[in-house]
Structures are given as C-alpha cells and as structure tokens.
Specification:
single chain; 215 residues; alpha/beta; six-stranded parallel sheet; 4 helices; 15% helix; 30% strand
Length: 215
C-alpha cells in the first residue's frame, strides 16, 4: 500500500518506521517546511498544499503530527473521507479483539489496549501506554508513553495525557485538557484545564479562544 505522511517531525519519524515495517511504502511526505515538490530516493517531499495533486484513490494518509490542535486543524482543512486515513497499529502492541478503532489513529510499540475499549479518530496511543477495559478515548487525543488509563475512563476530544501519568477508574477528563507527566488523577477534570501532581490538582484553565485561533 502507498502511504502519504503528513508532517515530518520527530513523531512522524517513528510512525514512518511503523508504516514500513508493516510492508507499506511511503509514497510522499508533505510538510510546510518544503516550499516546492522534490523527489528524494523515490519519495515525494512537498508542501501540504500539494497533497490533493499527489493523492490517488488507492493511497492512504496518516497525519503524523504530535500536536492535537494542529492534527485537528490539518484534518479539518483536508476534508478527506475517513476511509482515506490509515490506522497504524504496531505489531508489538497488545490489542483486545473487542477493542474498536477509528480512522487515522496510531498505536505505538508495546502499547496495551484491553477489552471493550473504544479509540476514536486521529488519536495517538504512545509507546508503552496502557488503556484498560471499557475506556472511551475520543478524537484527537494523545496518551503519552507509559501513561495508564484504568477501567471505565472517558477521555474527551483533544486531551493530552502526560507521560507516566495514571487515571483511576471511572474518571472523565474534559475536552482539550492537559494532564501533566507523572500525575495521578483521582477525580474528574473539567474541560480546558491543566492538572498536575499526585493527586492531580488543577493549576489553571486553558484559554480556549487562543486554541480556536490556531485551528
């Protein structure tokens, strides 16, 4: 399968290796760091504006951008059908047969996703993350390396769960909130909040207007 990668930063490097390990071929890498189209070692490098010229019906697209806000902005701008996006799951990840995945999600090496969990569109489940049973992880979220979501956790759109943090059972994290690295979340967190520490406490509200202006 031919794949077009969007973004060419550090996160994209890892996803590119995952894509090729599964026997797919990277046809193009589009990123606005490139001012014009060029071909290097058989791969097209081009700005994002070139994607509709490069994209063919049988190709798949991965938005390999770590920022949740930017990832949503790019997907909204492209207006591609969901089926055009490739969901990438590393073979070393442990995935329940009852887990469900949306379009364009990336599950990194050694992640664990257990029974009846739903991972929605364009999420990042990073290296070694554990998503226990009956979780709901909504669109454009990022579960960082070695973070743990215990049972029946709800993660709303755009949330970033920091590396090594833990969310106890039944907790809900509101949309576009950030949980700091190493935090232990023992109660629900409202939308647009930043919480840190053990137990996690809210230290400030995120200025939602500023977030919208970047999208």
């Amino acid at each position: 399968m031919k794949v077009i990668m969007i973004g060419n930063g550090g996160h994209s490097k890892v996803v590119q290796e995952m894509v090729t390990r599964q026997g797919n071929r990277i046809h193009a890498i589009v990123d606005d760091k490139y001012e014009s189209e060029q071909i290097v070692d058989g791969i097209v490098y081009a700005p994002l504006t070139s994607i509709h010229k490069i994209l063919e019906k049988e190709m798949k697209v991965v938005v390999a951008i770590g920022s949740n806000i930017v990832r949503k902005r790019v997907v909204s701008k492209l207006r591609l059908p969901g089926e055009q996006y490739l969901t990438v799951i590393d073979p070393s990840a442990v995935i329940s047969k009852s887990a469900v995945f949306g379009y364009g999600t990336v599950v990194m090496p050694k992640a664990v996703i257990n029974a009846d969990t739903q991972i929605h569109d364009h999420c990042i489940i990073n290296t070694g993350a554990v998503i226990e049973h009956d979780n709901s992880v909504r669109d454009f979220t990022h579960i960082s390396p070695n973070a743990t979501l215990t049972g029946n956790v709800t993660i709303e759109e755009g949330v970033h769960i920091g590396a090594g943090s833990t969310v106890i059972p039944g907790v809900q994290i509101g949309e576009w909130s950030i949980i700091g690295a190493g935090a232990t979340v023992i109660r629900s967190v409202p939308a647009n909040s930043k919480a840190v520490g053990t137990p996690a406490r809210i230290i400030n509200k995120i200025f939602r207007v500023a977030m919208k202006e970047t999208m």
